[in-house]
Amino acid sequence: MTWRILAAAAVALTTGMLCWSGIADQRVPGAPSPTLLPGNSGACHSCSLTQHDLPTISDATLLEHLDEYAGLPLGSESSAIDQLLFHGDRTRTLLRSNPARLPARQRAFLERELNRTHARVFLRVVDAAGNVVTHVDGARVPLDEKQHLMGSNLVALKPHEFNGTVKRVGLHHLWTRM
Hints:
The chain is of the alpha+beta class. It has two domains: 3-27 and 118-177, no CATH class; 59-114, no CATH class. Helix content is 23%, strand content 33%. It is built from four helices and eight strands, in the order E-E-H-H-H-H-E-E-E-E-E-E. It has helices at residues 59-70, 79-86, 88-97, 104-114, and strands spanning 3-10, 21-28, 118-127, 132-142, 147-150, 152-153, 161-170, 173-177. Strand 7 (161-170) and strand 8 (173-177) form a beta hairpin.
């Protein structure tokens, strides 16, 4: 049987939540087998349990991004704001130690964005005939933490469990590995 996985994540504009939507379409089986990690763990390179280090960035580079962001119109998209949000914990630390680095409005906007800590995930699996087999309807998940979501089974199959991590990668962008 051919399955088509339609995954969409969307969130409501509420305090601490991001506003984002996206869709991915993938056909399985027929996908290449995953590359297993060395050793006897049974995990593959794409497994969300596998720890992947964040790209390194120096404080000097983050301060350059703060300076660039300070000169931009409030709420505008740029690689500077994307980098500041991607490296959220480090950005918070730099803001505390450099409080006068940004104008008050820019600082308030950045802090509000840094405080958005959750996303809402919607997911559905559709068979080749277009029937929804299972779905997840708006599970609220924290960013940067591995989550396990149980699908609501609509046909007589084994229970479906989806797991992965949602990462903030920009002002209007999230990334997930499921």
